[in-house]
Amino acid sequence: TWYRIQLDFCTSGTYLNLSANQFRLTVDNSTSNIYYFEDINEVNKIRFESGNASKGIAHIDAIGYTWDQYYNLNDNKNEVISYPEKTNVQFVANCSDTESDLPSLRYYWDFDDGTAGWGKYTQHTYVTAGVYVVNLTCKDDNGITDWYSKRVFVHNKYPNIINISSSNSFRPINEGETILFNAEVIDDESDISRLAYWWDFEDYNFNPYDTSNYESGGWKQSNIYTDDYSGYANIIVKDPEGALGYKSVLVNVSNVNPLLSIWDASIIANISFEVYRNSPSYNGNFTFDLLESLLY
Questions:
Q1: Which residues constitute the signal peptide according to the record (predicted)?
Q2: Between 20 and 30 A from 32 (CA), which of 43, 218, 238, 256?
Q3: Would you give the DSSP letter of residue 275?
């Protein structure tokens, strides 16, 4: 009996330690080797579509599959209603009773997040993503009660990085120069100011689920490449609930050829001379001037 499958896959570029057209399966806590898509001859009974995703993780159980790594086993077996977080959800109670008792019915709502509501019609806003069991209790004027429960799945709006631009996109960059990076991110308005950013400037074994080795920063960041580089710079964005998004931008840093220059120069020379005197008995001192113009 298996309970949960995680599928890591990559159709282009690199993802985790996967290359293009490779995948890996984890069944419960047991992880397979890395395989190529062409190793699969036939797949029976299960099929999933990645949409436009070329790399990522899918989670599968016996009931279905989901892209949400935080889902609970068999969540999709039960009937749920789903809303984005921070959405004003409208609730309507439908309770049958004798016609004479209908006007006196009282309704009590438990929204499973520490808050409650009253009345046949009510509304509630869930500020945090999760699966909530909403309980409705109905009581008539004789104190007779009945109750009904329904699960509400409140999903987090994941950060969506719509674009990364860099100064390298507009002009060639040489090693030793500063590259400016700028990320544009869409998320819930209340989360934008609370987003956390990490940058990976060299795409070696990039793992968006482990930020410990990456540089923490903001939506604007700069980096100096001390050597030539051709590859990707990556950004990871995570919201307060832990949902993350990531994106890459191509970077090309050119090598700078050595440049020889002379800052200063001096001349060292040995000068020899002879002195001839007409009279052997002549005694005295003599001087001479070495003209600077003679050195050039």
A1: none
A2: 238
A3: -
CATH 2.60.40.10 boundaries in the chain: 80-155, 160-254
Measured at the alpha carbon of residue 232, what is the angle toward residues 228 and 237, in degrees to the nearest 5? Answer: 135
Q: Which fold has domain 160-254?
A: Immunoglobulin-like (2.60.40)
Task: Mention the CATH class of domain 80-155.
Answer: mainly beta
Q: Is the pLDDT of residue 111 over 90?
A: yes
Pairing of strands 178-186, 160-166: antiparallel
Distance CA 37, CA 58 (A): 15
Question: Beta strand 35-36 with 5-10: parallel, antiparallel or unpaired?
Answer: unpaired
Q: Which residues pair with 130 in a beta bridge?
A: 154
Stretch among 136-140, 239-243, 292-296 having the lowest mean pLDDT:
292-296
Q: Give the β-pairing of 55-60 and 121-125.
A: unpaired
Separation of alpha carbons 195 and 187, rounded Å: 9
Q: Residue 123 contacts by C-beta under 8 Å, 6 or more apart in sequence?
A: 88, 89, 90, 91, 117
Q: In degrees, to the nearest 5, what angle opens at C-alpha 30 toward C-alphas 25 and 34?
A: 35
What b/e readout covers 7-26, taking b as 16+ CB neighbours within 10 angstroms?
Answer: bbbbbeebbbebeeebbbbe
Q: What is the pLDDT of residue 117?
A: 94
Q: Is residue 228 helix, strand or coil?
A: coil
Q: How many CB atoms lie within 10 A of CB 277?
A: 10
**Residue 72 in this model has a pLDDT that exceeds 60:** no
Q: 139 has which bridge partners?
A: 106, 145
Query: Model pTM greater than 0.70?
Result: no
